[in-house]
Amino acid sequence: MSDGHGPPPETPSGWSAEQPPPYSAPQASPWTAPGSPQQAPYGQAPQQPPQQQSYAPGPQTPYPPYSHPPYPQPQPGYGYMPPPPPALRPGIIPLRPLGLGDILDGTIKLIRSNPKAVLGLSAVAALLAAVPLAVGQAFLLSSVGGVLTDPTSATAADDFTTLYGFVAQYGGTLVSYAVQFVVVTLLTGVLTRILGRAVFGGNITAGEAWQLVKGRVPALFGVVGLMAVIMLVPVIVFVLLMVALAMNASADSFGWMAALTILFVIVYVAYYLFFRTRFAFASPAVVLEGRGPIDAMRRSWHLVSGDFWRVFGIMLLTSILVGLVASILSVPFTLAGTMFGMFGAGSTVTTVVSAVLIAVGGTLGAMFTYPFEAGVAGLLYADRRMRSEAFDLVLQTAAIEQQRQGWVHASADELWHPSNSARS
């Protein structure tokens, strides 16, 4: 008689009653799904669940040969951020901070959107500046060409003619610079006003732009005059210093004077580029914000301070590009005018033809250079305001209002005032 602690009884086959025989069916899982057949004890047939009415599936459409079944598209996972919507672009630029491509593309669109006003005014300004220089060069080439053609026939009268040609050359250059000082200043103001409207997709005639700009002309000349003083004072001081040194120097000291001159040229180039970049936005600040000369230069200095090297690089690249294009346009005419002037010496007709060709070459080059440089400076000014003052939010709000109204009205010009900046 067992007290419950003895060994379990053995079966005839030698296996314990609590140990399942080998290869027996696994024990029933307590996590049997509802409706699944219940497992029966070992050696018995499993119990079948009650029969339920079933519906036979319809005919399956096989996939076409050599094709894969459609897989579900992946859904955005955790942390997925959709791309931002494209920026509004009612005019020549998208209303967001600009890249180099946006600035160059916007400048080209400025010229193409209003060619009559932009290129027409630029051609007039370039022609006024090119004519005095072309006339002086034509007289110089005519006088020098006679000496080159027959050097043995040079007389005192020929020397006087050559001197007259040099005087005409330098006189024409000075007159050209004076005219350029005036017309380019006015042109910059008018083009800046046209650009301010083109940002919103609006066009403005040259007459309308002039009516808006003429009240800012004294301030524009003030900015250009102050820039001229800043650029010329170091040159004048250096020239006076070298003259004083040359008057008291010996023959052996001209070597280090030449080295000093080369050093000054290198330093002056850096000086010129630095201040030209710092005051690049002074003219847009005068025209679009209504500031005075000194205040506009201070404003330009402040805007450039946050991104000096980028502004410098874009302006330098622009100068190189427009210089190459202007050379391609002007060199054939200038070369032809030079040949006419030198080999047709003494003839009034060849002198006139030479002057005309040189003037045409200078006009074509400057007609492209003036609006492109003014457009890049204006768009860089807008970009710096977007980056430093969140000005793009102001422009976007105004653009939505313009789209709602369906046209660009004159009140868009007032948006450039600094009081409309989001961070002012």
Automatic annotation (TrEMBL):
Chain segments carrying region Disordered: 1-85
Keyword Membrane: yes
InterPro entries recorded: DUF7847
Protein keywords: Membrane, Transmembrane, Transmembrane helix
Pro residues bias spans: 1-11, 59-85
Protein's UniProt keywords contain Transmembrane: yes
Residue ranges of domain DUF7847 in the record: 102-366
Coiled coil ranges: none
Positions of transmembrane segments: 118-140, 174-196, 217-247, 253-274, 308-335
Skewed-composition ranges (Low complexity): 25-58
PANTHER family: EXPRESSED PROTEIN-RELATED, OS08G0107100 PROTEIN-RELATED
Name used for this protein in its record: Glycerophosphoryl diester phosphodiesterase membrane domain-containing protein
Species name: Nonomuraea marmarensis
